[in-house]
């Protein structure tokens, strides 16, 4: 036992078994040439893996344990019951549900059914639907040292050889990684009046590798909902997938782009004509200046600026587009509302809108604060001359079927020469809350491919 490990043990909490905080890798590595007992493989680091999920916001979805030596089960399956994981958050301690355990060469989850390969990490996947799985409330939760992992059964190969021995020691996480979220840099922008907007920015890998190259990238500007108004400059990424879905590796490989995610600060501005946030004159003016400044500071394709927003963010889209009718190439607006009198100025802009018919927060027809919802706006847009292609289906369909419906709607729109699409979700089919219509919107490859095909 090293001195550092002894100190960590002394500082740990004894709750029936000893709890230690794992130390840096160099401290626990076995000395070269020293024999190691079967199943003895020191833990070097324990890391929580978080994920921004489509419906459940920001969650702790796995624990990755780094061992001194590679783990090889020789094809054996590690039972979830071999490990117990407990979360201590806000003074409450509760067990997490372990769903899968497998070795890996990297500290990340594997979606394949036969996940895992021999490597220095053991990945313990957790049920994201656990009541205590969340990684944030209004602000991020203090997750460092909040999770305890105990191995309660030996891990063996199919032939019975010992791979990892169970024991009385438990470990706590000493790190947290936030895939995709961590790829956004944090910044702020102060406009000409002195009003400040915080923002997060994703920069495409091609630009990072060669910032001087003569390549221009699309810009996706994401407008968060009213629940993400805060001073933490992170909730606009983690409360839903409106921003991170555009930055995930598979999406960036297909559509490399800058992703700009501003956040409205507290105390929340409420000077807009209908009491919302993105319509507040101070916020709207700062947003416009931020977008204009960004397009001059980065190699942005000015013909491929896209606006994406949900709830009050969609309200912001319907408010901003008539004021800048020749700036944006297309927009995605979910569960929004707006002013019908301005629709005749945006009939030329490609849009894909969607809304749950039974939305109680922003009613589908009536909207909020005397401003109509998406259904009414699309009718008004059509009366003003735009050809609107409509579709309705359940919002809880499997991804493949959901995208098939979207593809059929898009094909119908193309045959009709329509550049405005409107998806309605059948009552009772939007999980968690009928207001959360956006859960499948940004996972929908058909919709996103359509967005990036638009050019001003």
UniProtKB/TrEMBL annotation:
Keyword list, A-Z: Hydrolase, Signal
Name listed for the protein in its UniProt record: Phospholipase
Signal peptide interval: 1-27
PANTHER family (alphabetical): BLL1128 PROTEIN (PTHR43037:SF1), UNNAMED PRODUCT-RELATED (PTHR43037)
Provenance organism: Streptomyces rugosispiralis
Classification lineage: Bacteria, Bacillati, Actinomycetota, Actinomycetes, Kitasatosporales
Residues annotated as domain Esterase Ig-like N-terminal: 46-162
Gene3D superfamilies assigned to the protein according to its UniProt record, in alphabetical order: 2.60.40.2180, alpha/beta hydrolase (3.40.50.1820)
SUPFAM superfamilies: alpha/beta-Hydrolases
